[in-house]
Amino acid sequence: MQSASDRHEYPAHWEADVVLRDGGTARIRPITVDDADRLVSFYEQVSDESKYYRFFAPYPRLSAKDVHRFTHHDFVDRVGLAATIGGEFIATVRYDRIGADGMPASAPADEAEVAFLVQDAHQGRGVASALLEHIGAVARERGIRRFAAEVLPANVKMIKVFTDAGYTQKRSFEDGVVRLEFDLEPTDRSLAVQYAREQRAESRSVQRLLTPGSVAVVGVGRAPGGVGRSVLGNIRDYGFTGRLYAVNKAFPEETKEVDGIPAHRSVRDVDGPVDLAVVAVPAEQVPEVVAECGAHGVQGLVVLSAGYAESGPEGRERQRELVRHARAYGMRIIGPNAFGVINTSPDVRLNASLAPETPRPGRIGLFAQSGAIGIALLSRLHRRGGGVTGVTGVSTFVSAGNRADVSGNDVLQYWYDDPDTDVVLMYLESIGNPRKFTRLARRTAAAKPLVVVQGSGTAPQGHAVRATRLPHATVSALLRQAGVIRVDTITELVDTGLLLARQPLPTGPRVAILGNSESLGLLTYDACVAEGLTPSPPLDLTTAAAPEDFHAALARALADDAYDAVIVTAIPAVGEGSAGDAALAEALRSAAEQVPGKPVLVVHVELGGLAEALSAATSTAPQAAAGPPKIRADHPFRALDRLRATQTPAEPPAPGNSDRLIPAYPAAERAVRALADVVQYAQWRREAAEPGKVPEYENIDEKGAAALIDGLLTRGQGLTLGTEETCELLARYGIQVHRALPAASPDAAVEAAAALGYPVALKATAPHLRHRADLGGVRLDLADEEQLRRAYAELTELFGPPDELRPVVQGMAPRGVDTVIRAVIDPAAGAVLSFGLAGAASQLLDDTAHRLIPVTDREATSLVRTIRTAPLLFGWRGSTPVDTPALEELLLRVSRLVDDHPEVVAVTLEPVVVAPRGLSVLGASVRLAPPPARDDLGPRTLPAY
Questions:
Q1: CA neighbours within 13 Å on the CB side: how many for 228?
Q2: Distance of CA 682 to CAs 412, 563, 804, 839, 941, Å?
Q3: Tens-place pLDDT, residues 595-646
Q4: pTM, full prediction
Q5: Which helix H or strand E contains 781, and what residues bound it?
Q6: Residue 692 half-sphere exposure, CB side, CA atoms within 13 Å?
Q7: Residue 473, Cβ neighbours under 10 Å: how many?
Q8: What is the pLDDT of residues 534-586, one digit of tens each?
Q9: Distance from the CA of 143 to the CA of which of 56, 225, 266, 683 falls in 20 to 30 A?
Q10: CB 3 within 8 Å of CB 931
């Protein structure tokens, strides 16, 4: 691409797809010598005013010298980037490295002049802001630390691009020109600006897919049936408020309508704009459809077609080409292999899906990567009987299929500020960018609940995701840290989602239990205890309780400050129905409305259908199934259904509506599990309001540690430090490691003990014996030379010669609880801090807690208390509590070390003995390596294909 005189090859890694402010996409790439014609064509479409702003003088056309200058770059001191749509330039940016005198220069000069030019038709789309992020990243890569830009005062838009970027900058005015200088090092403000722009752009890109003004279904069969014809019917029957078109290139010329919908042979034949195309043609025909949609200006695609990455390597390459092709036209894709999208808003009413049942409007946002799971979730939310009663619908539904482009992250960006969505439910088979997902989840969960079922951790074949070295359980723990309500099954997803959609958040774990069945009340009590809630003894109203008794008891419990939530247990009358069934339903609803600030749940046992089934049996042998048992029409919870049916509005209720539905569950365990999840979420949300801080310590030598790390890395790309180097680096952060001396012989052991002072410990540090006191490789409290020599002989007799044992002598530390602290940098999730007790039991039970780095003081406190064996630190069974504040400080220091120096890719402190006063770090290891790329600190990009 470049001439032989250029100093660097074409930097393909600078190519990127970006989402613009209006939700469309563009491609950013380096400008090369082959772009001369594109550059000239681009410049001809720029207005004279924009040219004047760029060159400070009338400049109607580019000379041959200009074209050569703007297309020949060395990709070091001179760099040009272009934003393209459909292969054509819509904007350019370039920098030229300059010296202190303002003249062209080379490294080590670290300043460059930067200039932009944006086609007038694309101004206001955020193109310049995206280009600034990318040219800034390129400059930092090439050793440039500062940009300078000269702008005419009248060019307010470009001045705003620079001043709004959030970088530290200086501004001056001289000779009628505004000169801006700004550092390129990311700041908290520049990252906040970048994240805000990312949220607006990605949210808008999803909004364009879910709120189209016109839809074309491509692949509508000429005969009834088939995917395309079914989707067309669903869109029409649901009452789509926009324009709808049926498209099939096989339609005869005389076909003007299909099922009353205007029919066309191509999207390009549609007279008017098409915002969304639903593609349901064989995979080999999709490229032609994409080209037609791109040429017609379609904004987005929902690709239902299969035969892509889920089908193998050939399909995976077909999927990559699909994404590249669509993005070249500025379009985003849901799918391929998708189930469709739904928007129940009365202003849209879009059901572009294969859902077998018409979705009801509601305030739950639903995302599923699997079409089958999406069907199951929609069906469960649709049903008004069975597992969970009542009417609850969705605001929007997205089935992402292979998730080649639009992902759960994008939809989260949309739901974050969507006024029609109060609760978010997600079924995720894989998480493509855990670092970004946890960031978005934390922000979303602070505003509205986010409930997630996460797959096994093995990505389906159709999903292109980066590998993570973290165990599935660790990723789950990090999601919970971000405020995600993590559940294990889709049943729990629906159970928890319904409670969140219908009831307020509890202020604590105290639960009142009341009902007309003592046994059911006790089951509920036991379930509460098992889930960590604090239940009061159940109040038995007896089976003779009337609706008035339920009302009075529920009202008293809700008014009592001793309770944060109430679970009502009820069994229906056996036999004929009672005239008071509807009254019972109304009694519960009216009592709940009197005190709307506390959640109410109902646990019911459906005996009616069971009694009918039993009475119909003529033998004690199993009978052939004749369908599910039916619930009596006058069953009290059918009365609840009737009441809801009559009072559920046709449109979603407004946020904060006091007319809340009471969720009912067929088993105590399901109700209590949902309540426990919501209690934990409510606690997280209260704590998130005061997130804590990363403390500063006076004895941290950050610069000294950086110099030490730089020196050590000169030895190689990956380096596990020796004992002395480890101790020196940790000491820079105030972490003192208990001294240990090698003992290659009994005499060396005696000399080491004399230097350290008795009593001492003798330890084998061979890999198979290290940290394994249970194998007998450690001898403690050796008080003199005789005991030390005897212990040395025992170890060598049991485990082999000293060169295999690698024995060391270490001074005895105060007794306490042995713990382990680890930090690792995962390429996908980022830096993670882990804590647990030392020993085989903790490893066997996987009793380890995790937090993302940097860790705040609140998170360090939580980390220590999260593990199941935490009581051992706080005086379990009469033992002396240990110094947990010292332990929390050590966790914070390790977090600071890894956060300040990403070259520290792994730290292990094992064991850390925490005594009643103070602690001792008895073993430590540190690994250095060039840090993984931090995509969250770089410019905004879409996943590359």
A1: 27
A2: 20, 15, 54, 34, 34
A3: 889 999 999 876 433 323 323 333 333 333 333 333 333 333 333 333 333 3
A4: 0.83
A5: strand 778-782
A6: 16
A7: 12
A8: 999 999 999 889 889 999 999 999 999 999 999 999 887 654 444 455 677 78
A9: 56
A10: no
Angle, helices 746-756/785-799, rounded to nearest 10 degrees? 140
Exposed / middle / buried, residue 898 (Cβ in 10 Å: 0-12, 13-18, 19+): buried
Q: How far is Cα 742 from Cα 784, in angstroms, rounded to an integer?
A: 18
Rounded distance, CA 641 to CA 831, Å? 49
What is the DSSP-derived secondary structure letter of residue 735?
-
Q: What angle do CA 817, 819, 823 make, to 5 degrees?
A: 160
Distance of alpha carbon 92 from alpha carbon 71, whole angstroms: 11
**φ, ψ for residue 136, nearest 5 deg:** -65, -40
State the virtual CA torsion across 777, 778, 784, 786 in degrees, nearest 10: -20
Whether 429 shows a pLDDT value over 90: the answer reads no
360 DSSP assignment? P
Q: How far apart are CA 85 and CA 329, in angstroms?
A: 6
In whole angstroms, give the CA distance from residue 278 to residue 233. Answer: 13
928 alpha-carbon distance from chain centroid:
28
Taking Cα atoms as reference points, which of 115, 98, 201 lies closest to residue 158? Answer: 115
Q: What share of the chain is helix, strand, coil (3-state, %, to 5)?
A: 40, 20, 40
Residue 780: which residues within 8 A CB-CB, separation 6 or more? 761, 812
Cα end-to-end span (Å), the chain: 21
* DSSP-assigned beta bridge partners for residue 579: none
- Residue 401 · residue 369 · CB < 8 Å: yes
The rounded radius of gyration (Å) of the Cα atoms in the chain is 33
Note whether 484 and 445 are within 8 A (CB): yes
Note the maximum CA span of the chain.
106
Average pLDDT over residues 793-815: 89
Q: What is the token pair recorded at 202?
A: 């990605």
Q: DSSP of 17-55, one letter per residue?
A: EEE-TTS-EEEEEE--GGGHHHHHHHHHTS-HHHHHHHH
* Least reliable range by pLDDT among 68-82, 135-149, 172-186: 172-186
> Looking at this protein, which amino acid is placed at residue 266?
S
The answer to whether the beta carbons of residues 925 and 425 sit under 8 Å apart is no
User: Both tokens of residue 383?
Assistant: 């049903």
* pLDDT one-digit tens code per residue, 1-26: 444 334 578 999 999 999 999 999 99
- Confidence band for 932, pLDDT divided at 50, 70 and 90: low
Mean pLDDT of 179-204: 91
Sign (positive or negative) of CA dihedral 898, 900, 902, 903: negative
Contact 585, 639 (CB under 8 A): yes
Chain-centre distance for alpha carbon 511? 31
121 class by beta-carbon count within 10 Å (0-12 exposed, 13-18 middle, 19+ buried): exposed
At residue 452, the 3 state secondary structure works out as strand
In a 13 Å sphere around the CA of 131, the CA atoms on its Cβ side amount to 31
- Report the mean per-residue pLDDT for the chain: 86
Q: Is the dihedral of CA 525, 599, 412, 293 positive or negative?
A: positive
